[in-house]
Description:
It is built from eight helices and no strands. The chain is mainly α and about 140 residues long. The chain is rod-shaped. The two termini are about 50 Å apart.
Amino acid sequence: MFILSFTAYEFYIGSITDDSIFLHKVAGIALLVVTLIHILIRRKKLKKLTQEFFNIFSQNKKVTLDSDMDRLLDSLEPKTLKQVCDTFNLDTKELDKIFSQNNISYESLEQTLKEISKINSFKTFAIIVKIIEYKAC
């Protein structure tokens, strides 16, 4: 990059030589080759970013944050609190403690995490994180 900038500056001030033109071309080609190699190595990431870009602007598809996070949300959102307790090996008293500490209210153990997040204006992922944090301590 420095070589390209330097030779471009030389061209701008008018003191360019045949050697600096050659050097500028070599540096430009090298930059293109390195860019292509980088794209080939990172093509999965590029494909994912391109897909997310089009999903954002098309407004037809769900924008994915991270595939693992999406899988976690998709698997736990439709579960009832009782099923969540079984999944995380919690009893209902522990779940009450987690929810009361974080000002999350619920009516029954048959409500899903999605319903609870809507009632409390809380993101489902944040509720799951609170449960995992409790289990980690």
